Structure formats: C-alpha cells, structure tokens
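Bench notes, bay 3.
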Amino acid sequence: MARLTNEIHARWTWWTVAGAALSVVLLVWLVAAPLVEAQTGKAKARPKTVSPNEMKKLDVRMDDVQKSFIKDTASLIRDFEEAGQPERAKLLLEVLLKLDPKNDSIRKKIDDLNDKILDQSEFEYELDVSKPWVQVGVVTGGKLARITAEGDYKFDAAGKLTADGVPAQDPANDMITGVPMGTLMGVVMPANPQPNRTNNGNPNKPPPFAVKSEYEWTPKQDGVLLLKLNFPAGTKCTGKLKLKISGMLKAA
C-alpha cells in the first residue's frame, strides 16, 4: 500500500507540475507573441488552409487525446480511492465535470465520494437540550459538512409576554426569528472575524440556520459550530438529542 501511495503521489505531482508548466508556457506565449510582432513589424500570418482530409486527421487525433486523458484520469481516480484518498479522487472528478457538465454518471460518483468523505470523519455527540449554545465542532470553509439528529425532548415555557410577542433582540438568549420554534439550529462563529463584516448591525455574528433532523452544507469560512434549540428565554427543556456529525473536527 505504501508503494501504491508513493506512486499515486508521484503521478499527482507530475500532473500538478505539468499543468503548471503548461500554464506558464501559454502565458509566456500570449504575452510574448504580440511583443515580438510589434518589434519585428511583421504582419500576422494568414491562417493555413486545411483540406477536409487533414481536418479529419486532426479530429481523429483530438478524439485519441480525449480518450487517453479520460482513461488515465479514471485510472488515477480509482487508485486514489483504493489508497483511501477520496478527496483527491473527487477533485479530479470535478475537473471532468467541468469538461462535461451534463454527465450524470460523474455527478453521481461525486455524490458517492461525498458520502464516503463524510462517513470517514463522522463522530457522535449527545446534545443536552437544557443548555444554551453548545460548541460541538470546528468547520473548515469550503469543506462539506453534515448533521443528523435523533431523539425527542420535553419543554416547559415560563415567563410573561406582551402584545409585542416573544423577544428576539438577543441571539444569545432570545428566540431566533425565521427559524421555527423548538427547532434544532446552528451557527458558525468565524475563526477570523472580519472588522467590517456585520449582520443586522451585529459585528461578526452570522445568522443562525435551521438544522432540524438533518442538514448538509458547505461553510463559507472556518469557524466553530454551535447548536441549540430555538426557544424563548426562560423555557426549560429536558432530554437529549443524539447527533451524528461529519465533515468537521469535534470540539474540545
């Protein structure tokens, strides 16, 4: 397995270096060509006239290159999977999908790899619903994450209300508007707060979102995931929810 992993790493490195080298060559050519023409004063050459037979040969060569590329890429994807590197396999599939956006087989394979990636990082967490916001995990921006919740709980509402209804001024304690009452909800507090970033006048406080019994999303930035039930302040909840959390590190 170590030998296979080294071989895959070498092939991956070759692909990366080759791609970078090709990009540099193309960039140099695009920049240098106009300068050379300007310095030499030569007019642009007219496109070469290609006969139908020659064009057919070019099309055949293009098909051969495409088939070879797909074959080599498919082999590399399979090797990455066998080496326990589904994220790298997914990266290559996403490249293929850009070349062929309507390919449902590639999309399905990416979905399968997403499940495999999430399963590899899954951990269980027992959420005490009597507590306020609880830190449960550390998410990575751009990386798929998933939460599933099972179980039930009891609640006892207390306190007085006015005609204005349930207070919703303080996200830390009050009920969150836009999220159904009693719903499991979450919020990702950014690891690196942005000084000028605001949410309804609250600096660096992103809006909570409904998790319910299952939620899958891709966080936009690194941060800490917090969970709680959406109830007004003063509500007493008893019970525990069993969570399965994937795509993130468990909070210390």
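Next record in the batch:
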Amino acid sequence: MLGFVMCAFWLAFALGGFAFHFTNHTIGSDYSSGRNDVIMQFIAIAFCGLIFWYIAHLAREYCREVTIMCQHIGLFRVATAESFCCSVKHRRPGGDEPMMCDREVMQKCINIWFGGTEAFERHVQSDLCDLLVDQLSNHMVSYWRLAEAAPVFLWFHLDVVARHLRIRYFTDSAEDGALLTGILILLVGLSYWLGVVPMLVRIMFRLSWTMQARCHCRLLDYFKSLLLLLPGISIFGAFVFLHFFLSGYLPYDLGSLTFALITNPLAALVWRSLPVPLPQQNMRLAREDAQS
C-alpha cells in the first residue's frame, strides 16, 4: 500500500506541476507576481485533488484494517488457532498417509520457550501486539519515508533556481541579486519538502485514525474521505498564503527566511507532540470483554 501511495503522491505532484505551468503560460500571468503565483498554485491543487482524495480514502481503510487486526490479536487464543494438519484430520491430501500434528509440536515449543500457554498468549496480546502496532503506525509512515516520497517540491523550486542562475551567469542581462534570490528560493523549496509536507501528512494521518470508521452507505463513506481531505487543503493553502504574505510585506530575503524559520520548527513540534493514536485501548477492552 505504501508503494502505491508514494506513486500516487508523485503522480499528483506531477499533475499539479503540469497544471501550474500550463495555466501560468496560458493565462499569460507574470510569474514574478505573488498574487498570480498563489492563484496558479490553488489551480494546481484543484487538478490533483481527486488523487489526494483517493489517498485519504486508502489511509482510512489502512487505519481501520490495523485496528481490526489488533483487536483480533487481542483475542488470540492457542485453543482457537487453526492449523492445516487438524483441518485435514492429520491425513495427507490425496491419500490416507498420516501426518504429524503441528499443534502438538507448537505446544511443546511454547511450553519450553514461554513456560505455558497462558504466558505465550499474554506475550502475543501485549508485547507482540504493541510492537506490531508501532511498526504499522509509526514506522510505516515515518518522517524519512515522507521525505523520500515528496522531493517534487524541492525539484520544482530547483527549476526556478536554475532560471535565476542561468540569467545570472549565462546571459548578458544579469540581474542584481540573482544568486541570493536563487538561494532563498531553494530555502523555500527545502521548507516545503522537509517541513510543510511531513507536517501535513502527520496531521492527516492522525485525522485518518480518528475518522477511520466506515459508514454504512458507500456514498457517505466517500464523502467522509472528502471531509478528511478538506483540512489538508486548508492547511496547505494557509502555508501558501503565509509565504505570499511574508514575501509581499517583508523584503524577499526576510520573507523566505522567516517562512523557513516558521515551517521547519513547527514540523518538528508537530511530529514530536502529535503521536498517532494507537488502538491499544480498544485491544484491552476487547480482552477484558472476552475474559468477563
């Protein structure tokens, strides 16, 4: 699933970038105009919104499947576990030759390794389950995996930097401060790549856990995924507006630097203080209900 989501991210970013450049050249807007720049970015977001909506729907399904799996592990019992040998009555398929019972072998190993069935069941329901949930919740969507999935923002700004450097070094009409402008644009690209995008995905993943419940009507379930997407669009649009505001009302060097100083520490704060709500409470409730 993660590979598909990464491919969908790349396709959405590529589609958004194409829409940005296409509308920019078609409408004939001035690229240096901050207001037109914001309009083009919102048009690009609208073009790739459908793909991100489907990603949000998949994220809800993923969180729901992890929760269901954890509830099943919380109710794990050796006595109710199925084995192939017992299902075929200890006879090899296609003949009457007897076969060894795997359950007896596993039972002996459990007694040797854990001291009994109850200790093994407690280990599976607690330690193993917590480790599995941590891997599927925190490490599956880690910061560095998001950094690997979203370098398109950096590449987009590198393209703009290349334009300024080309004017600075390879044309006769050199612009004053083109090198500094390119460095600041690169700083903004790094801020989007390593700050805004990971922070946004972290918030959306947290919301996916909260809104993972499936609606009885499929149309309402799709609409619920759309509602999940709206906060992400609003947050991303807020950062775009923040960059436009800082660049418009502050000198460009201070605006880009201020944007980087805001987004990167804020991303670190979000990743540190906004953990994913692991379904441990649901598992304990399931175990208590089963025991009672």
